[in-house]
Design brief:
Elements lengths: L3 E6 L6 H10 L10 E3 L2 E4 L8 E7 L20 E7 L5 H18 L5 E5 L3 E7 L2 E4 L9 H4 L7 E3 L7
Parallel strand pairs: 8-9
Antiparallel strand pairs: 1-5, 1-6, 2-3, 3-4, 4-5, 6-7, 7-8
């Protein structure tokens, strides 16, 4: 079973160049010839062995359905999805730290955008609505010291089931 994480944005905010810039900051040189153009986006597999995941930036604005979760009373209409597929043979913790580095850098770039960071389509770890960060730690995800570093200096609230966000 693949381990997939998604960082979903309510607005179209990211360009391919934004992703390239984040990877460049992490010292990942990209060969433009290895970037796969897919319908409505790009896929980068070059990072699979170096960062521990492949990633895809996809325009989901024409989707008929939104993201549903016990934490939201209404569907979240995702316009853009940055998806990560974890390399199961890579150091899992290091791969997640690399992924969170990109996610939080992007959150800083688009501070007014509503967004969700989730796992395998059903576990919300973080949501930002109206510039407020809400985290879900029911699985203990944020107890990991390496992951906690990303939220410890930020103000956040705990997500509550059926909370209107």
């Amino acid at each position: 079973m693949a381990l997939d994480y998604s960082f979903m944005l309510e607005e179209l905010k990211l360009s391919n160049e934004d992703i390239f810039d984040e990877l460049k900051k992490m010292s990942i040189p990209l060969d433009v010839n290895t970037i796969n153009k897919i319908p409505k986006g790009i896929q980068i597999t070059e990072t699979y062995d170096t960062l521990g995941f492949s990633l895809a930036l996809i325009d989901t604005s024409d989707s008929y359905y939104g993201y549903e979760s016990e934490y939201f009373l209404e569907e979240f209409k995702c316009q853009q999805d940055l998806s990560f597929r974890i390399n199961k043979f890579f150091d899992w913790e290091k791969a997640i730290v690399n992924m969170l580095t990109i996610v939080f850098e992007i959150m800083n770039k688009v501070p007014h955008s509503n967004c969700i960071f989730e796992f395998n389509g059903d576990t919300v770890y973080l949501a930002r609505f109206n510039e407020e960060i809400h985290i879900n730690n029911n699985t203990g995800f944020w107890d990991n010291e390496s992951f906690k570093q990303f939220i410890k200096h930020r103000e956040f609230m705990l997500l509550k089931p059926n909370e209107k966000l």
